[in-house]
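Notes from the 1:1 (GR / supervisor)

We went over the backlog. Supervisor wanted to see one worked example end to end before approving the batch request, so GR pasted a single chain during the call. The sequence is below; no edits were made to it. Supervisor asked that the structure be written out right there so they could see what the output format looks like.
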Amino acid sequence: MIPDKIPVQNEKMVRDARSKALLSTDRDAVRAYEKKRQESKAQKERINRLEQELADLKAIISELVQKR
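Structure output shown during the call:
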């Protein structure tokens, strides 16, 4: 029987026996990475929303100026 995970020199990592991928066993680091990734995604969404609102405001101002 082949073990699922093979230890490597770095004790915070293991190698998957099937795919040969290196996997982190440091759960705190994985959680921190996921939190940072979620925060980055939320920030990008906020920026996109603000850019859209700015474009809408520009269009409204342009329309108001043309009506004068």
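Supervisor's comment: The first strand starts at residue 5 and ends at 7.
Batch request approved.
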